[in-house]
C-alpha cells in the first residue's frame, strides 16, 4: 500500500460479518469477547467419510432470506456469504448508491478457492447425466471474482472493481488495494471476502496441506501457540467493510470506526515457516513505518496463529524482531482459535474484531488455549480491559504470503 496523500486518509465506516460464531457484528463480537469456541464436527453432506473431522461452520444463516432468488441460483455459498456481509456493512455505514455518482464507489474482494460447492455439483451433473444438465452459471459461479462482480452488479457500484486471488494473507491485501483505490480518487470501496471450503471437493484439495489438523476433538484440534499445537482447522465465512475517504465520510456525517493506517506484504514461499520470520518481520516493520507508528505504540496484536509449532515460533520471533522488548508485553490474541481459519476470510474477521476491540476497549481471549510456550503475552481464558488506540493484524498464507495491517482507532466526527 503506497503512502496516501494527507488529504486522502482511508477510514472504516461499515462492517458486516458472517462468521461461525455469529451473523452480524453484535453476535460476532459477543461470542468473540466471551472467548466462545464454536468448532465442531463437520456436518455438510458428503463430508462424513473425510479424515478432516473438525471445522468452523456458519450457523443461523438463511441464504434465501439474505439473497434474492435470481442471484441465489447463479452463485456459490462463498458469494452468498460475501453478498450478505456486504449488505450488513453498507447498512452499518448508511451508505447507499448515489445515482448521480455511480462511479464513486468500487468493490474489491479476496478469494482463495472460489465456488467449490457449486462447481462440484455441476461437474457431477456433467459426468453423471451429460452436458445438457450443466447449468449456464457454472462458468461464473466458481470463479474467484464472482463475489466482486455480483456485489457490484447488485449494488449498482460502477467504480474500480478488483479481486485478489491469493492465500490467506490476501484478505489484508484486499483492504490495502481498496485503500490505494481511495488514494487515487474513489470516494468509497466495498471490500472484504468470504470463503466456503466445506464441500467434499474443496476438502479433498485441503487434505494436501501438511499444516491441516486432523484431530477429532474440537477442544484440542486447533491450539495455536500452545505446546500441544498440531495444525489448524478450516472455517467458512468472512467479513466485508465499507472504506471511505475520510473527508467524503465526514461530509455525509458517517461514523468513523477506524483508520487504515499502514499495510505491507512479503512472500517467503509455501510451508517455509522458519523463513516466514524474516518475511513477516519485514511486513510488520514496513506497515508500522507507513503508519508512522513506533513499535511501542502497538496496543494489541491479532496474530496469524497457524497452530504449527515452527510457524508459531517464527511469528513470535518476528514480533520480537520488530517490537523488541514490547513484544513480550503487548497483548496478543487469536480469536480464530474458536472459529477456525476461514482462509482469505480469516484476517478480515480479525480486522473486524480489531476495530470492535478498539471501540470497546477490550482484548478478546484466545479460545481453548490455556498457555503458551513462547515469550508472548497471549490472552487466554478471559479477555481484558485495555485502552486500545492501535491494533496490528497479521496474516500468513499456506502458499507463502505474509501481510501486516495497522489500524488506528476512529476519531470523532
Automatic annotation (TrEMBL):
Entries under SUPFAM superfamilies matching the protein: Thiolase-like (SSF53901)
Protein origin, superkingdom: Bacteria
Keyword Lyase among UniProt keywords: no
Domain Ketosynthase family 3 (KS3) stretches: 7-409
Pfam families per record: ketoacyl-synt, Ketoacyl-synt_C
Stated family: Belongs to the thiolase-like superfamily. Beta-ketoacyl-ACP synthases family.
Official protein name in the record: Ketosynthase chain-length factor
The entry's keywords: Acyltransferase, Transferase
Organism: Kitasatospora arboriphila
Amino acid at each position: 500500500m503506497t503512502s496516501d496523500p494527507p488529504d486522502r486518509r482511508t477510514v472504516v465506516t461499515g462492517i458486516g460479518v458472517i462468521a461461525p460464531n455469529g451473523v452480524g457484528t453484535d453476535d460476532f463480537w459477543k461470542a468473540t469477547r466471551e472467548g466462545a469456541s464454536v468448532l465442531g464436527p463437520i456436518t455438510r453432506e458428503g463430508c462424513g467419510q473425510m479424515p478432516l473431522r473438525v471445522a468452523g461452520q456458519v450457523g443461523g444463516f438463511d441464504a434465501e432470506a439474505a439473497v434474492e432468488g435470481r442471484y441465489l441460483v447463479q452463485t456459490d455459498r462463498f458469494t452468498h456469504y460475501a453478498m450478505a456481509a456486504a449488505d450488513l456493512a453498507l447498512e452499518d455505514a448508511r451508505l447507499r448508491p448515489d445515482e448521480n455518482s455511480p462511479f464513486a464507489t468500487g468493490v474489491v474482494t479476496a478469494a482463495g478457492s472460489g465456488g467449490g460447492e457449486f462447481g462440484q455439483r455441476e461437474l457431477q451433473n456433467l459426468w453423471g447425466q451429460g452436458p445438457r444438465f450443466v447449468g449456464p452459471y457454472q462458468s461464473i459461479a466458481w470463479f474467484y471474482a464472482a463475489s466482486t462482480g455480483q456485489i457490484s452488479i447488485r449494488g449498482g457500484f460502477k467504480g474500480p472493481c478488483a479481486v485478489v486471488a491469493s492465500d490467506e494473507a490476501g484478505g489484508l491485501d484486499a483492504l490495502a488495494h481498496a485503500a490505494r483505490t481511495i488514494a487515487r480518487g474513489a470516494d468509497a470501496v466495498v471490500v472484504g471476502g468470504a470463503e466456503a471450503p466445506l464441500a467434499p471437493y474443496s476438502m479433498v484439495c485441503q487434505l494436501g496441506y501438511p499444516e491441516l489438523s486432523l484431530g477429532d476433538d474440537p477442544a484440542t484440534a486447533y491450539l495455536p501457540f500452545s505446546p500441544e499445537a498440531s495444525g489448524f482447522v478450516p472455517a467458512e465465512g468472512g467479513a466485508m467493510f465499507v472504506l471511505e475517504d475520510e473527508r467524503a465520510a465526514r461530509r455525509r456525517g458517517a461514523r468513523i470506526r477506524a483508520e487504515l493506517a499502514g499495510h505491507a506484504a512479503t512472500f517467503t514461499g509455501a510451508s517455509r515457516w522458519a523463513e516466514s520470520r524474516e518475511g513477516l518481520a519485514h511486513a510488520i516493520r514496513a506497515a508500522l513505518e507507513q503508519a508512522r507508528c513506533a513499535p511501542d505504540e502497538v496496543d494489541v496484536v491479532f496474530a496469524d496463529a497457524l497452530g504449527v509449532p515452527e510457524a508459531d515460533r517464527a511469528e513470535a520471533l518476528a514480533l520480537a524482531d520488530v517490537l523488541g522488548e514490547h513484544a513480550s508485553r503487548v497483548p496478543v490474541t487469536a480469536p480464530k482459535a474458536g472459529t477456525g481459519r476461514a482462509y482469505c476470510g480469516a484476517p478480515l474477521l480479525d480486522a473486524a474484531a480489531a476495530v470492535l476491540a478498539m471501540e470497546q476497549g477490550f482484548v478478546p481471549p484466545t479460545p481453548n488455549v490455556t498457555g503458551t510456550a513462547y515469550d508472548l503475552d497471549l490472552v487466554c481464558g478471559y479477555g481484558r480491559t485495555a485502552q486500545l488506540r492501535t491494533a496490528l493484524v497479521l496474516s500468513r498464507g499456506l502458499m507463502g504470503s505474509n501481510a501486516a495491517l495497522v489500524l488506528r482507532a476512529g476519531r470523532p466526527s
